[in-house]
Design brief:
single chain, alpha/beta, six-stranded mixed beta sheet, two-stranded antiparallel ribbon, 9 helices, 38% helix
Length: 269
Protein backbone atom coordinates (compact mmCIF):
# COMPACT_ATOMS: atom_id res chain seq x y z
CA UNK A 1 0.00 0.00 0.00
CA UNK A 2 1.27 3.44 -0.90
CA UNK A 3 1.03 6.03 1.85
CA UNK A 4 -0.68 9.23 0.80
CA UNK A 5 1.20 12.22 2.01
CA UNK A 6 -0.45 15.54 2.81
CA UNK A 7 1.19 18.11 0.57
CA UNK A 8 -0.84 21.04 1.95
CA UNK A 9 1.68 23.73 2.82
CA UNK A 10 1.64 24.81 6.45
CA UNK A 11 -0.04 28.15 7.11
CA UNK A 12 2.39 30.99 6.97
CA UNK A 13 2.84 33.13 10.04
CA UNK A 14 1.57 36.71 9.67
CA UNK A 15 4.32 39.18 9.14
CA UNK A 16 5.09 41.89 11.65
CA UNK A 17 3.35 44.60 9.63
CA UNK A 18 0.05 42.69 9.51
CA UNK A 19 0.22 42.02 13.25
CA UNK A 20 0.70 45.74 13.89
CA UNK A 21 -2.19 46.71 11.57
CA UNK A 22 -4.43 44.12 13.20
CA UNK A 23 -3.83 45.63 16.62
CA UNK A 24 -4.55 49.13 15.35
CA UNK A 25 -7.76 48.01 13.61
CA UNK A 26 -8.97 46.81 17.00
CA UNK A 27 -8.83 50.42 18.25
CA UNK A 28 -10.78 52.21 15.54
CA UNK A 29 -13.69 51.82 13.15
CA UNK A 30 -11.64 53.57 10.47
CA UNK A 31 -10.50 51.44 7.55
CA UNK A 32 -6.75 51.25 7.91
CA UNK A 33 -4.16 48.83 6.56
CA UNK A 34 -6.61 47.25 4.11
CA UNK A 35 -5.44 44.25 2.11
CA UNK A 36 -4.61 44.94 -1.54
CA UNK A 37 -4.35 42.92 -4.70
CA UNK A 38 -2.16 44.68 -7.20
CA UNK A 39 -3.25 48.29 -7.56
CA UNK A 40 -6.69 47.73 -6.04
CA UNK A 41 -8.23 46.66 -2.76
CA UNK A 42 -8.71 42.96 -2.15
CA UNK A 43 -12.23 41.66 -2.73
CA UNK A 44 -13.38 41.50 0.90
CA UNK A 45 -12.50 45.10 1.91
CA UNK A 46 -13.71 46.40 -1.46
CA UNK A 47 -17.14 44.84 -0.94
CA UNK A 48 -17.20 46.18 2.63
CA UNK A 49 -16.55 49.73 1.41
CA UNK A 50 -19.27 49.45 -1.23
CA UNK A 51 -21.74 48.20 1.39
CA UNK A 52 -20.86 51.14 3.65
CA UNK A 53 -21.40 53.56 0.76
CA UNK A 54 -24.82 52.06 0.09
CA UNK A 55 -25.76 52.30 3.77
CA UNK A 56 -24.70 55.96 3.84
CA UNK A 57 -26.82 56.74 0.76
CA UNK A 58 -29.80 54.93 2.27
CA UNK A 59 -29.41 56.91 5.49
CA UNK A 60 -29.45 60.23 3.63
CA UNK A 61 -32.62 59.40 1.71
CA UNK A 62 -34.55 57.57 4.46
CA UNK A 63 -37.69 59.25 5.78
CA UNK A 64 -38.29 60.02 9.43
CA UNK A 65 -41.19 58.17 11.08
CA UNK A 66 -42.41 61.30 12.84
CA UNK A 67 -45.53 59.68 14.25
CA UNK A 68 -43.60 56.90 15.98
CA UNK A 69 -41.00 59.36 17.26
CA UNK A 70 -43.75 61.61 18.64
CA UNK A 71 -45.32 58.67 20.45
CA UNK A 72 -41.98 57.73 22.01
CA UNK A 73 -41.28 61.33 23.07
CA UNK A 74 -44.75 61.72 24.55
CA UNK A 75 -44.05 58.69 26.76
CA UNK A 76 -41.34 60.82 28.41
CA UNK A 77 -44.00 63.28 29.57
CA UNK A 78 -43.52 65.84 26.79
CA UNK A 79 -46.09 67.58 24.68
CA UNK A 80 -45.02 67.22 21.05
CA UNK A 81 -45.45 69.33 17.92
CA UNK A 82 -44.51 68.19 14.41
CA UNK A 83 -43.62 70.68 11.68
CA UNK A 84 -41.95 70.77 8.27
CA UNK A 85 -39.20 72.98 6.93
CA UNK A 86 -39.60 75.02 3.76
CA UNK A 87 -38.14 72.11 1.74
CA UNK A 88 -41.12 70.37 0.16
CA UNK A 89 -39.44 66.99 -0.35
CA UNK A 90 -36.17 65.15 0.16
CA UNK A 91 -34.73 66.06 -3.22
CA UNK A 92 -35.38 69.75 -2.61
CA UNK A 93 -33.93 69.43 0.88
CA UNK A 94 -30.67 68.00 -0.47
CA UNK A 95 -30.42 70.51 -3.33
CA UNK A 96 -31.45 73.59 -1.29
CA UNK A 97 -29.86 73.58 2.18
CA UNK A 98 -31.21 77.09 2.79
CA UNK A 99 -34.80 75.84 2.71
CA UNK A 100 -34.02 73.29 5.40
CA UNK A 101 -33.12 76.17 7.72
CA UNK A 102 -36.52 77.86 7.32
CA UNK A 103 -39.92 76.94 8.68
CA UNK A 104 -42.56 75.80 6.22
CA UNK A 105 -45.72 77.90 5.72
CA UNK A 106 -47.81 75.89 8.18
CA UNK A 107 -45.12 75.62 10.85
CA UNK A 108 -45.28 79.15 12.27
CA UNK A 109 -49.02 79.02 13.14
CA UNK A 110 -48.56 75.59 14.73
CA UNK A 111 -45.75 76.88 16.93
CA UNK A 112 -47.39 80.22 17.69
CA UNK A 113 -50.37 78.42 19.21
CA UNK A 114 -48.06 77.04 21.91
CA UNK A 115 -45.93 80.17 22.40
CA UNK A 116 -45.06 81.26 25.92
CA UNK A 117 -42.09 82.04 28.13
CA UNK A 118 -39.78 79.02 28.14
CA UNK A 119 -36.20 78.44 29.13
CA UNK A 120 -35.57 75.70 26.57
CA UNK A 121 -37.01 74.06 23.49
CA UNK A 122 -35.72 70.71 22.22
CA UNK A 123 -36.04 70.02 18.50
CA UNK A 124 -35.62 66.56 16.97
CA UNK A 125 -34.60 67.07 13.35
CA UNK A 126 -34.09 64.39 10.70
CA UNK A 127 -31.08 66.13 9.12
CA UNK A 128 -28.94 63.90 6.93
CA UNK A 129 -29.68 60.70 8.85
CA UNK A 130 -33.25 60.23 10.01
CA UNK A 131 -32.21 56.83 11.35
CA UNK A 132 -29.88 58.50 13.85
CA UNK A 133 -32.63 60.63 15.38
CA UNK A 134 -35.13 57.79 15.22
CA UNK A 135 -32.82 55.47 17.18
CA UNK A 136 -30.86 57.73 19.53
CA UNK A 137 -32.83 60.89 20.42
CA UNK A 138 -35.34 59.40 22.87
CA UNK A 139 -32.75 57.33 24.82
CA UNK A 140 -30.64 60.49 25.33
CA UNK A 141 -33.67 62.51 26.43
CA UNK A 142 -34.77 59.76 28.80
CA UNK A 143 -31.55 60.41 30.75
CA UNK A 144 -31.35 64.20 30.31
CA UNK A 145 -34.94 65.28 31.01
CA UNK A 146 -35.10 64.23 34.68
CA UNK A 147 -31.99 66.31 35.41
CA UNK A 148 -33.38 69.33 33.56
CA UNK A 149 -36.67 69.07 35.44
CA UNK A 150 -34.88 68.90 38.79
CA UNK A 151 -33.01 72.07 37.84
CA UNK A 152 -36.28 73.86 37.09
CA UNK A 153 -36.01 74.39 33.34
CA UNK A 154 -39.30 75.59 31.86
CA UNK A 155 -39.65 73.32 28.86
CA UNK A 156 -41.44 74.29 25.67
CA UNK A 157 -43.22 71.54 23.72
CA UNK A 158 -40.76 69.26 21.99
CA UNK A 159 -40.70 69.92 18.24
CA UNK A 160 -40.13 67.25 15.60
CA UNK A 161 -38.95 68.65 12.26
CA UNK A 162 -39.00 66.95 8.88
CA UNK A 163 -36.49 68.02 6.21
CA UNK A 164 -34.68 70.27 8.68
CA UNK A 165 -31.17 71.55 9.33
CA UNK A 166 -29.49 72.89 12.45
CA UNK A 167 -30.43 76.55 12.07
CA UNK A 168 -34.16 75.82 11.94
CA UNK A 169 -33.92 75.54 15.72
CA UNK A 170 -33.35 79.30 15.89
CA UNK A 171 -36.67 80.00 14.18
CA UNK A 172 -38.44 77.47 16.40
CA UNK A 173 -37.11 79.12 19.56
CA UNK A 174 -38.22 82.54 18.29
CA UNK A 175 -41.75 81.35 17.52
CA UNK A 176 -42.18 79.57 20.86
CA UNK A 177 -40.47 82.21 23.01
CA UNK A 178 -37.66 79.98 24.28
CA UNK A 179 -34.39 81.34 25.63
CA UNK A 180 -32.31 78.40 24.45
CA UNK A 181 -32.61 75.63 21.90
CA UNK A 182 -31.16 72.13 21.73
CA UNK A 183 -31.31 70.59 18.26
CA UNK A 184 -30.79 66.83 18.10
CA UNK A 185 -30.13 66.06 14.44
CA UNK A 186 -28.88 63.30 12.17
CA UNK A 187 -25.33 64.03 11.06
CA UNK A 188 -23.87 63.41 7.61
CA UNK A 189 -23.29 59.64 7.31
CA UNK A 190 -19.75 58.38 6.96
CA UNK A 191 -18.39 55.04 5.82
CA UNK A 192 -18.25 53.80 9.40
CA UNK A 193 -21.23 55.65 10.92
CA UNK A 194 -24.51 55.96 8.99
CA UNK A 195 -26.42 56.64 12.24
CA UNK A 196 -24.48 59.37 14.04
CA UNK A 197 -26.51 62.04 15.85
CA UNK A 198 -25.37 65.50 16.92
CA UNK A 199 -26.74 67.88 19.56
CA UNK A 200 -26.42 71.60 18.83
CA UNK A 201 -27.02 73.97 21.75
CA UNK A 202 -27.60 77.71 21.34
CA UNK A 203 -28.22 80.38 23.96
CA UNK A 204 -30.50 83.27 22.95
CA UNK A 205 -30.77 82.24 19.27
CA UNK A 206 -31.52 85.00 16.82
CA UNK A 207 -31.97 85.32 13.04
CA UNK A 208 -28.28 86.26 12.71
CA UNK A 209 -26.98 83.39 14.86
CA UNK A 210 -24.05 81.52 13.29
CA UNK A 211 -22.37 78.17 13.98
CA UNK A 212 -19.79 80.02 16.07
CA UNK A 213 -22.61 80.73 18.55
CA UNK A 214 -23.40 77.04 19.08
CA UNK A 215 -21.92 74.21 21.11
CA UNK A 216 -22.02 70.73 19.67
CA UNK A 217 -21.89 67.18 20.97
CA UNK A 218 -21.05 65.03 17.96
CA UNK A 219 -21.03 61.30 17.20
CA UNK A 220 -23.83 60.31 19.58
CA UNK A 221 -24.39 56.59 19.06
CA UNK A 222 -23.63 53.44 21.06
CA UNK A 223 -20.29 53.03 19.25
CA UNK A 224 -19.38 56.70 19.76
CA UNK A 225 -20.54 58.94 22.61
CA UNK A 226 -23.07 56.81 24.49
CA UNK A 227 -26.48 57.92 25.66
CA UNK A 228 -25.57 58.54 29.30
CA UNK A 229 -22.47 60.55 28.45
CA UNK A 230 -24.28 62.55 25.77
CA UNK A 231 -27.07 63.37 28.23
CA UNK A 232 -24.50 64.42 30.83
CA UNK A 233 -22.80 66.69 28.31
CA UNK A 234 -26.09 68.18 27.18
CA UNK A 235 -27.22 69.02 30.71
CA UNK A 236 -23.78 70.32 31.70
CA UNK A 237 -23.54 72.67 28.73
CA UNK A 238 -27.10 73.95 29.14
CA UNK A 239 -26.39 74.64 32.82
CA UNK A 240 -23.22 76.55 31.92
CA UNK A 241 -24.99 78.47 29.16
CA UNK A 242 -27.65 79.66 31.59
CA UNK A 243 -25.12 80.52 34.30
CA UNK A 244 -22.78 82.44 31.98
CA UNK A 245 -25.30 83.83 29.50
CA UNK A 246 -23.46 82.64 26.40
CA UNK A 247 -22.79 79.70 24.12
CA UNK A 248 -20.51 78.78 21.23
CA UNK A 249 -16.80 79.41 21.00
CA UNK A 250 -16.79 81.48 24.18
CA UNK A 251 -18.11 78.53 26.20
CA UNK A 252 -15.83 75.51 26.53
CA UNK A 253 -16.60 72.14 28.03
CA UNK A 254 -14.55 71.55 31.17
CA UNK A 255 -16.62 68.72 32.59
CA UNK A 256 -13.62 66.41 32.49
CA UNK A 257 -15.01 63.74 30.16
CA UNK A 258 -15.09 63.36 26.38
CA UNK A 259 -14.45 66.73 24.75
CA UNK A 260 -17.31 68.57 23.14
CA UNK A 261 -16.23 70.19 19.89
CA UNK A 262 -17.54 73.32 18.33
CA UNK A 263 -19.76 72.49 15.36
CA UNK A 264 -17.97 70.04 13.03
CA UNK A 265 -17.89 70.39 9.27
CA UNK A 266 -19.85 67.14 8.94
CA UNK A 267 -23.07 68.56 10.38
CA UNK A 268 -26.37 68.99 8.61
CA UNK A 269 -26.16 72.76 9.05
Amino acid sequence: MIDKQDHTPPPSAPDAAEVAWSRLRGLTAARIGLARRGASLATAPLLDVRLAQAQARDAVHAALDAARLAEQAAALGLSVLTVDSAAADRRTYLMRPDLGRRLGPEAAPTLAASAGEYDLVIALVDGLSARAVQDHAVPVLAVALPALRVEGWRMAPLVIVRQGRVAIGDAIAAELGAGAVAVLIGERPGLSAPDSMGAYLTWRPRSHTTDADRNCISSIRPEGIGYAEAAFKLVFLLREMRARGRSGISLKDDSGTTAVADCPTGSAS
